[in-house]
Fold each of these.
Amino acid sequence: MTLWIFASLLILLALLLILPPLLRKDLSYGNDRREQNISIAKQQLAQLAKEHKAGNISEPDYISTKAELEQSLYQDLQESDADNTQKTAKSRGAYFSLAIVGLFVPLLSLAIYLLVGTPQAIDESSRVVVADKNGMPDINAMITRLEQRLEKAPNDAEGWFMLARTYSVLKRFDDAVTAYEKSIAIDNKNPQAFFYLADTLAVAKQGDLRGRPNELIQQGLALKSDSQMGLWLAGIAARQSNNNAQALAYLQKLHPLLNESPTEQQEVAKLIQQLSGESSAAAPAPAPQAATPVAQAPAPVPTPAPQAATPVAQAPAPVPTPAPQAATPVAQALAPAPVPQAATPVAQAPAPVATAPVPQVAPPVAQAPAPAPVPQPTAPVVTAPASQSVPPVAPVAPPAP
């Protein structure tokens, strides 16, 4: 209601400023012409009288000239009065015309607006800009209107992109993903749509940009390789994949693009410094790994030596086994023949000593004498038959008498 009152006052003010000057111009024009004619006639009569007094003009000429001037002035005044009469009539018509214009122009404008315009838009606009408690506009109403518009124009890629951004603000991430995908399906040349879709998918994965989000980032960078958002997301994705070299390359490319944002540029610089430190700290790691096998090389050398010694120590074990069996028959008492069998494992013991790769490594050469105790098994081999021959001799002697 206030709007209409204000509009009416503006119309009246405009009419008051325009109409009066137009009316005053017509009336003043007739009066000015009459005054000019009288003034000119007076000047001519004064000049004529001056010339007559000076003797330049004779009396008859003076009288005739004066009569002509008066007659001319009379005619001019008559014409001026006639013009004023006509102009007065015209002025009355002008008043009527101006009244019609001043009255019907606003009414006609209002009628056209009511027929062609949308007066409801005034109320709708007032409802749209309804603020909540925090002074923010009603986002839900904006989303509703945008959704209705996209129903009528489903091929509006920019509209779907704006709707997806709005969904993200409201944390409706599933709806945002759907809207971003529709926008990309309509227009796949918008790199921002790829970056925002990747970011939204990462939110659903607890910030993880690996997998499909990273693929979307690379597609966006293929369209715009110097995108600040794309380079930042690509660097984070590479860092999450433990590819610090690639992450460092993305961030180093991003750093000079942030000259107009000093705060963000400092954050990127800190991250670059951190990645550079991690890369330099990880560089010497291979050196100890190469030294480890060298130190471990002697380890396998002593391993076969104890294994070879083990069968030598175990070789005497089968020798005492036939001793109890030899106590029954004398022929079996002569079983010291198994002594050569003990020699067989003795002969096998040197074999591993000869095949040991000790001579191939210079440091373990000092360990080669370790198998030297191999001759020790010969002592038990000799003592074993000796101990076996004593018991059989004693039982043979009594049957001789």
Note: The chain has a mean pLDDT of 66.
Amino acid sequence: MPKINISQPHKDAQAYRFDMKRMRVMIGRSSENDITIEHRSVSKGHCFIDRLKGGFVLRDNGSTNGIKLNGKREEVITLTNGMVVEIGDVPMAFTLTEEECDQLTAERFKARPEPVAAA
């Protein structure tokens, strides 16, 4: 299963590692989320990660401070291995093992349509 690393902007905070075992993982400040981030810039139900065939996407859930890639606010971000995004002001690194990268590549390859021969 892919793993997500979350690091908070506090020097003493330890990185949080989460196994993606479901098709959708909720992230926010509320303890009802799968991943709880206790930071003032994070909304109660801030965003979620969806597991799609061949990959993952991060989707904003109408939060106040949004999700960002390279400092630019986005509604949806396609996650790639090693990518760092921001949930509010909290950086989140998305990492996969080599085996997981191979599995996602195989899923993407299977999802492509078969070529059609010209008549």
Note: Helices lie at 98-111.
Amino acid sequence: MSELSERGGWQPFGSLYGHGFVRIGAAVPRTRPAEPEFNAERTLALAREASDAHAALVIFPELGLSAYTNEDLFHQRALGAASRDALEAVVRKSARLRPVIVVGMPLWIEHGLFNTAVVVHGGRILGVVPKSYLP
């Protein structure tokens, strides 16, 4: 028996999904500052683990694709471009994964730099949320 029907049909009693619950993962990959390609690979490895564990949602750290400790490098357009490329890889490879994935990354929008959470599922970006409280 499958744990979760693709069409939302019957699920066995032992399935947490059949009781109105979902499995959520919080994942913290090892990252390297200013190496978004490496960070995306580590993010995807943990997203695959979450998918194999039948998670519906997996959340990654703030600025996880770029790494948090980049300081002045955040103002370099090269880091922004590499972070967008890393996001594209996560989006593309999310098409084969079960969970909704939330990753953090810096994003240049018009003339401003934003610390964002990007929501990804099924090979698509579902939304982008900028950080609203900046200490």
Note: Residues 77-94 form the longest helix (18 residues).
